[in-house]
Each structure stands twice: as structure tokens, then as C-alpha cells.
């Protein structure tokens, strides 16, 4: 699908979304040159209306936006770009130009952190030390956490129950990594079952 830059005098709005959390982090504008540069280099470049020139996000701060996916809307006059942001996106230092980080989608960030600790062999990390003990120990830990969650479900301590649920999710993410699967693959199965 081709973008219609003529609809809005050569500039189109571009929505930037964190690829992991799906949180919208900023809005910018692109002309055709900025769009082509973004596609070619894999780093978001806008047309700055205040500077009246191309502006690569992060060119001064180092907080680049690495492109993961580009989508054009049905009217061909707006773009959605999913990115992996480096540090904060907003010039204020905040995660997003629309405020603080939302907890929705955090499981993907956690999954990435677990992956990094394992891939980088972070010796002082609990995650890596559990992973090093092998699939049997990781699976056993998931079982233990599941039993603890069931026990807390029968009691009335809300905080303990929520903490055990968090522990179980954390260990399931380690198990997925150990088995070579991702949270997205599991979500796809759940989505396919949705009726």
C-alpha cells in the first residue's frame, strides 16, 4: 500500500508504538523523504516542523527508535510504526510523550529481561542460575509456584495471592525461554481459540 502524501500537504501523522508493550509513546510527522529514510535505515526519522528539516529521533540524545514494523492505515494517510525505544522517548526523559509507562504489556518487557539475563549469562542473576540447573528444575519450580498459588487461592489474603500469581507468571516465562518458545506464540494459540 502506498502512502498518499498529497492529502495533507506533504506531511503525514506517524503514531509511534512500543513494540513490546503496545503503548503509544509519541506522535510525529513525516514527509516522503523521512518515510523512505526510516524504511531504509530501520531507525525512525521525522520531518521536524519547528526545525524545517529531517530529524532522526535520538540524533542528539542517543534515544533512537528502532523500527520493528510499519503499517499504513486504510485511508493511506497515517502511519503506525512499532519500535524498540532506547531509554525514554519524550524530551522530558519520560518513557512516553503521553505520560508514564503503563503496566499493560509489561510481561513482554519482563520476557526480554529474562532472555537477556540468560543469553548474556548474568551469573549473579536468579533467572540465569535457575536456567543453568536445567529443564527439570525450571519445570519443578513452575509446579511449586502453581501449588503455592492454589493454596493462596483458598485463603483470603489478597496480597499473598497476587504475589504468588506474579511468581507463577515469572517462572512460566523462564520455562518458555528454556523450551525455546515465546509469550507471543502462546498468545497466538489463545487467540486462535477465541470464539
- The separation of the N and C termini measures 30 Å
Helix-strand topology string: EEHEEEEHHHHH
Main beta sheet strand tally, sense and closure:
4 strands, mixed
Shape: elongated
Please state the oligomeric state of the protein chains shown: single chain
What is the percent of helical residues? 40-55%
Number of H/I helices:
6
Structural class: alpha+beta
- Describe the strand arrangement of the main beta sheet, using strand numbers: 2-1-6-5
- The average pLDDT is 93
Number of strands: 6
Query: Low-confidence runs (pLDDT<50, min 5 residues)?
Result: none
Strand residue content: 15-25%
Give Rg in angstroms.
21 Å
Would you mind describing this structure in some detail?
The chain is α+β, with helices and mostly antiparallel strands. Helix content is 43%, strand content 19%. The protein has helices at 32-41, 106-119, 126-132, 135-154, 158-179, 183-193, and strands at 12-18, 24-30, 45-48, 53-56, 65-72, 79-85. The strands form two sheets. The chain has a four-stranded mixed sheet, with helices on one face. The protein is elongated, with a radius of gyration of 21 Å. The two termini are 30 Å apart. The mean pLDDT is 93.
List the helices and strands and how they pair.
Elements: E1 12-18, E2 24-30, H1 32-41, E3 45-48, E4 53-56, E5 65-72, E6 79-85, H2 106-119, H3 126-132, H4 135-154, H5 158-179, H6 183-193
Parallel strand pairs: 1-6
Antiparallel strand pairs: 1-2, 3-4, 5-6
Amino acid at each position: 500500500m502506498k502512502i498518499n502524501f498529497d492529502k495533507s500537504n506533504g506531511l503525514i501523522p506517524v503514531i509511534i508504538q512500543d513494540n513490546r508493550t503496545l503503548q503509544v509513546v509519541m506522535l510525529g510527522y513525516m514527509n516522503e523523504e523521512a518515510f523512505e529514510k526510516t524504511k531504509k535505515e530501520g531507525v525512525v526519522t521525522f520531518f521536524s516542523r519547528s526545525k524545517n528539516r529531517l530529524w532522526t529521533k535520538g540524533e542528539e540524545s542517543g534515544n533512537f527508535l528502532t523500527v520493528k514494523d510499519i503499517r499504513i492505515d486504510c485511508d493511506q494517510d497515517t502511519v503506525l510504526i512499532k519500535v524498540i525505544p532506547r531509554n525514554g522517548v519524550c524530551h522530558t526523559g519520560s518513557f512516553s510523550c503521553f505520560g508514564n509507562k503503563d503496566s499493560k504489556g509489561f510481561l513482554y518487557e519482563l520476557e526480554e529481561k529474562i532472555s537477556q539475563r540468560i543469553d548474556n549469562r548474568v551469573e549473579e542473576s536468579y533467572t540465569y542460575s535457575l536456567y543453568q540447573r536445567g529443564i527439570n528444575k525450571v519445570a519443578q519450580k513452575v509446579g511449586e509456584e502453581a501449588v503455592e498459588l492454589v493454596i493462596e487461592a483458598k485463603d483470603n489474603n489478597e496480597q499473598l495471592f497476587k504475589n504468588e500469581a506474579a511468581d507463577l507468571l515469572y517462572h512460566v516465562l523462564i520455562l518458555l525461554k528454556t523450551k525455546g518458545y515465546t509469550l507471543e506464540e502462546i498468545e497466538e494459540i489463545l487467540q486462535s481459540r477465541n470464539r
